Amino acid sequence: MRYALTGLALIAAAFWGQMALSRAAPQLDEQVKAARVELGRRLFYDADLSVNGTMSCATCHEQHHGFTEGNRTHPGALDDPGRRNVSTLANVGDFPRLTWADPRLTSLEAQVAVPVFGEHPVEMAMKDHESEIARRLGRDPCYVTQFRQAFPGGDGAIDYPKVAGALAAFERALVSRGSDWDKAVSSAQARQG
Questions:
Q1: What is the pTM of this model?
Q2: Each residue of 84-143: pLDDT tens digit?
Q3: Alpha-carbon distance 68 to 66, whole Å?
Q4: For the chain, what is the mean pLDDT?
Q5: Element containing residue 55 per DSSP (H, E)
Q6: How many CB atoms lie within 10 A of CB 165?
Q7: Residue 3 to residues 11, 66, 163: CA-CA distances in angstroms?
Q8: In Å, how far are 26, 33, 82 from 151, measured between CA atoms?
């Protein structure tokens, strides 16, 4: 009986995992998908997404800390105190909810607006500066090319929804499975039955 329930639990987990993946990632041509991930990677490390050019997504979501940070909170671009710790982005594409503060926030594209435009707390301080993002990025010929490759078939314009889409594509690519820790946990679970 215990093995039957374990098997049922595994099947359910696989099903819900596939549901989360299909909900989270739009179906794209592989070349376009790769172009979006690469554009999102570049945007993730670009401080031009903050009002004064001092803060990127990577300022708080540090790669060497598993895309999180070791501090309790992080001040925003204008030195406003942070109000919450920095969540990891590892496997974030699988999360059914993206914040504890607002359980309605279920898409990575929508979540990007929280640090970029949010006021409580002020993080990147771009509220009322949405067009500035497009202006800054549009000055860089490399960005112009990358946006055209990542969002083909459109007018080629750089705008915030495309920025959010590219960042979300990069975040979905931050998958951490099969690490030594994962293998040790699954091995211990297998031994327990």
A1: 0.75
A2: 777 888 888 888 777 767 788 889 999 999 889 988 788 888 999 999 999 999 999 999
A3: 5
A4: 80
A5: none
A6: 20
A7: 12, 34, 47
A8: 13, 9, 34
In which element (H, E) is residue 47 found? Answer: none
- Between CA 133 and CA 110 the distance in angstroms is 16
Cis check for the bond before 96: say yes or no (omega within 30 of 0). Answer: no
Residues 68 and 89 sit within 8 Å (Cβ to Cβ): yes
pLDDT at 3 over 60: no
Is the N-terminal amide bond of 121 cis, ω within 30° of 0? yes
- Reading the block at residue 163, the tokens are 């920025």
- CA-wise closest residue to 38 among 183, 192, 170: 170
* Alpha-helix runs per DSSP H in the chain: 2-24, 30-44, 57-60, 108-111, 113-117, 130-138, 141-150, 160-172, 180-192
Amino acid at 28: L
Distance (Å) of CA 107 to CA 40, 88, 92, 99: 16, 16, 10, 10
pLDDT in tens, 68-94: 777 777 777 676 777 777 788 888 888
